[in-house]
Amino acid sequence: MTTSGQPRYMDDEEWPLKCDRRAAVLCVADDACLNTILDKILGIQTHRNNTPQFHFKDSEIRHIVFKQQLIYKDFCNNPVPYTIQKHNRFDELNGAKVVATKHIKKNIVLFELCGQLYPFSDKFLIPGVNDFSTVTSSVNDKDYMFLGPVSFINHDCHPNTQWHSRTKTLSCVKTLRDIFTNEEITLF
Question: Superkingdom of the source (predicted)?
Protein backbone atom coordinates (compact mmCIF):
# COMPACT_ATOMS: atom_id res chain seq x y z
CA MET A 1 0.00 0.00 0.00
CA THR A 2 1.07 3.57 -0.55
CA THR A 3 0.90 6.23 2.14
CA SER A 4 -2.47 7.27 0.69
CA GLY A 5 -3.81 3.78 1.41
CA GLN A 6 -4.07 2.90 -2.28
CA PRO A 7 -2.55 -0.34 -3.62
CA ARG A 8 0.89 0.08 -5.14
CA TYR A 9 1.02 -1.15 -8.70
CA MET A 10 4.20 -2.33 -10.35
CA ASP A 11 5.02 -3.13 -13.95
CA ASP A 12 7.08 -6.02 -15.29
CA GLU A 13 10.13 -3.80 -15.79
CA GLU A 14 10.33 -2.76 -12.11
CA TRP A 15 11.51 -6.18 -10.91
CA PRO A 16 15.30 -6.51 -10.99
CA LEU A 17 15.27 -10.32 -11.01
CA LYS A 18 12.94 -12.50 -13.04
CA CYS A 19 12.77 -15.11 -10.26
CA ASP A 20 11.57 -12.46 -7.78
CA ARG A 21 8.93 -11.33 -10.27
CA ARG A 22 7.52 -14.86 -10.54
CA ALA A 23 7.54 -15.31 -6.76
CA ALA A 24 5.80 -11.93 -6.35
CA VAL A 25 3.13 -12.86 -8.88
CA LEU A 26 2.55 -16.11 -6.99
CA CYS A 27 2.13 -14.09 -3.76
CA VAL A 28 -0.41 -11.75 -5.38
CA ALA A 29 -2.31 -14.66 -6.95
CA ASP A 30 -2.36 -16.53 -3.64
CA ASP A 31 -3.63 -13.47 -1.75
CA ALA A 32 -6.45 -13.08 -4.29
CA CYS A 33 -7.39 -16.77 -4.04
CA LEU A 34 -7.41 -16.65 -0.25
CA ASN A 35 -9.57 -13.54 -0.26
CA THR A 36 -12.11 -14.75 -2.81
CA ILE A 37 -12.19 -18.50 -2.12
CA LEU A 38 -10.71 -19.93 1.08
CA ASP A 39 -11.36 -17.11 3.56
CA LYS A 40 -15.06 -17.19 2.69
CA ILE A 41 -15.19 -20.90 3.49
CA LEU A 42 -13.27 -20.55 6.79
CA GLY A 43 -14.94 -17.30 7.83
CA ILE A 44 -11.61 -15.69 8.75
CA GLN A 45 -8.85 -13.75 7.03
CA THR A 46 -5.88 -16.08 6.68
CA HIS A 47 -2.28 -15.01 6.06
CA ARG A 48 -1.39 -12.40 3.45
CA ASN A 49 1.84 -11.85 1.55
CA ASN A 50 1.40 -8.05 1.38
CA THR A 51 2.94 -7.89 -2.07
CA PRO A 52 2.19 -4.91 -4.34
CA GLN A 53 -0.49 -5.48 -6.97
CA PHE A 54 0.61 -5.76 -10.58
CA HIS A 55 -0.14 -4.91 -14.15
CA PHE A 56 1.49 -7.88 -15.84
CA LYS A 57 1.17 -8.38 -19.52
CA ASP A 58 3.10 -11.50 -20.42
CA SER A 59 1.39 -14.86 -20.81
CA GLU A 60 3.74 -16.68 -18.40
CA ILE A 61 2.61 -14.42 -15.58
CA ARG A 62 -1.07 -14.77 -16.46
CA HIS A 63 -0.54 -18.56 -16.45
CA ILE A 64 0.83 -18.46 -12.86
CA VAL A 65 -2.28 -16.56 -11.71
CA PHE A 66 -4.68 -18.85 -13.62
CA LYS A 67 -2.97 -21.98 -12.26
CA GLN A 68 -3.19 -20.72 -8.67
CA GLN A 69 -6.92 -20.07 -9.09
CA LEU A 70 -7.41 -23.61 -10.43
CA ILE A 71 -5.46 -25.10 -7.52
CA TYR A 72 -7.73 -23.46 -4.94
CA LYS A 73 -10.92 -24.18 -6.87
CA ASP A 74 -9.95 -27.86 -7.28
CA PHE A 75 -9.19 -28.08 -3.58
CA CYS A 76 -12.49 -26.47 -2.54
CA ASN A 77 -14.81 -27.96 -5.17
CA ASN A 78 -13.67 -31.58 -5.41
CA PRO A 79 -14.59 -34.24 -2.88
CA VAL A 80 -11.30 -34.72 -0.99
CA PRO A 81 -10.64 -36.60 2.27
CA TYR A 82 -9.26 -33.51 4.05
CA THR A 83 -10.16 -29.92 4.80
CA ILE A 84 -8.57 -26.71 6.07
CA GLN A 85 -9.75 -25.68 9.53
CA LYS A 86 -9.12 -22.72 11.81
CA HIS A 87 -6.74 -23.17 14.73
CA ASN A 88 -4.86 -20.98 17.18
CA ARG A 89 -2.18 -23.39 18.34
CA PHE A 90 0.56 -20.87 17.62
CA ASP A 91 0.68 -17.20 18.58
CA GLU A 92 -0.64 -16.13 15.18
CA LEU A 93 -4.19 -14.92 14.87
CA ASN A 94 -6.40 -16.83 12.43
CA GLY A 95 -4.11 -19.78 11.93
CA ALA A 96 -5.18 -22.78 9.91
CA LYS A 97 -4.38 -26.47 9.63
CA VAL A 98 -5.21 -29.34 7.29
CA VAL A 99 -7.24 -32.17 8.84
CA ALA A 100 -8.32 -35.54 7.45
CA THR A 101 -12.10 -35.84 7.12
CA LYS A 102 -11.88 -39.59 6.61
CA HIS A 103 -9.29 -42.37 6.78
CA ILE A 104 -6.47 -41.98 4.21
CA LYS A 105 -4.25 -44.99 3.54
CA LYS A 106 -0.46 -45.05 3.40
CA ASN A 107 1.27 -44.17 0.07
CA ILE A 108 -1.65 -42.12 -1.29
CA VAL A 109 -0.75 -38.98 -3.25
CA LEU A 110 -3.00 -36.09 -2.22
CA PHE A 111 -3.06 -34.30 -5.58
CA GLU A 112 -5.44 -31.46 -4.63
CA LEU A 113 -3.30 -30.63 -1.58
CA CYS A 114 -0.69 -28.88 -3.67
CA GLY A 115 0.97 -25.56 -4.41
CA GLN A 116 3.14 -23.71 -6.87
CA LEU A 117 6.74 -22.92 -6.10
CA TYR A 118 9.09 -20.35 -7.60
CA PRO A 119 12.64 -19.39 -6.57
CA PHE A 120 13.44 -15.98 -5.13
CA SER A 121 16.50 -13.97 -4.15
CA ASP A 122 17.48 -12.99 -0.60
CA LYS A 123 16.27 -9.44 -1.30
CA PHE A 124 12.71 -10.64 -1.89
CA LEU A 125 11.96 -11.93 1.63
CA ILE A 126 10.56 -9.57 4.24
CA PRO A 127 10.79 -11.14 7.73
CA GLY A 128 7.37 -11.52 9.31
CA VAL A 129 5.57 -10.56 6.09
CA ASN A 130 6.20 -13.10 3.34
CA ASP A 131 8.63 -15.54 4.97
CA PHE A 132 6.06 -18.05 6.28
CA SER A 133 5.71 -20.22 3.19
CA THR A 134 9.18 -20.90 1.92
CA VAL A 135 11.02 -24.15 1.35
CA THR A 136 14.65 -24.92 0.60
CA SER A 137 15.38 -27.56 -2.00
CA SER A 138 17.56 -30.42 -0.83
CA VAL A 139 18.56 -30.95 -4.48
CA ASN A 140 19.87 -27.49 -5.45
CA ASP A 141 19.83 -25.63 -2.08
CA LYS A 142 17.65 -22.84 -3.55
CA ASP A 143 14.89 -21.13 -1.61
CA TYR A 144 11.37 -21.20 -3.08
CA MET A 145 8.13 -19.33 -2.35
CA PHE A 146 5.60 -22.14 -1.97
CA LEU A 147 1.91 -21.19 -1.93
CA GLY A 148 -1.41 -22.95 -2.33
CA PRO A 149 -3.58 -25.11 -0.06
CA VAL A 150 -0.45 -27.10 0.85
CA SER A 151 0.92 -24.02 2.65
CA PHE A 152 -1.60 -24.68 5.44
CA ILE A 153 0.07 -27.98 6.36
CA ASN A 154 1.94 -27.47 9.61
CA HIS A 155 5.36 -28.84 10.55
CA ASP A 156 5.75 -31.88 12.78
CA CYS A 157 8.89 -33.76 13.77
CA HIS A 158 6.95 -36.98 13.16
CA PRO A 159 5.01 -36.11 9.98
CA ASN A 160 2.41 -38.24 8.26
CA THR A 161 3.13 -36.91 4.73
CA GLN A 162 6.13 -36.07 2.59
CA TRP A 163 6.69 -33.84 -0.45
CA HIS A 164 5.73 -35.27 -3.82
CA SER A 165 6.84 -33.33 -6.89
CA ARG A 166 4.37 -33.21 -9.78
CA THR A 167 6.26 -30.81 -12.07
CA LYS A 168 9.15 -28.38 -11.78
CA THR A 169 6.83 -25.72 -10.32
CA LEU A 170 4.06 -27.81 -8.70
CA SER A 171 4.27 -30.09 -5.67
CA CYS A 172 1.80 -31.95 -3.49
CA VAL A 173 2.11 -34.47 -0.66
CA LYS A 174 2.09 -38.25 -0.29
CA THR A 175 1.08 -40.10 2.87
CA LEU A 176 3.84 -41.85 4.83
CA ARG A 177 1.41 -43.87 6.93
CA ASP A 178 -2.33 -44.24 7.42
CA ILE A 179 -3.96 -40.98 8.50
CA PHE A 180 -7.10 -41.28 10.58
CA THR A 181 -10.27 -39.19 10.59
CA ASN A 182 -9.78 -35.84 12.39
CA GLU A 183 -5.99 -36.27 12.44
CA GLU A 184 -3.97 -33.24 11.36
CA ILE A 185 -1.95 -33.69 8.16
CA THR A 186 1.67 -32.67 8.78
CA LEU A 187 5.05 -32.36 7.05
CA PHE A 188 8.62 -32.31 8.32
Answer: Eukaryota
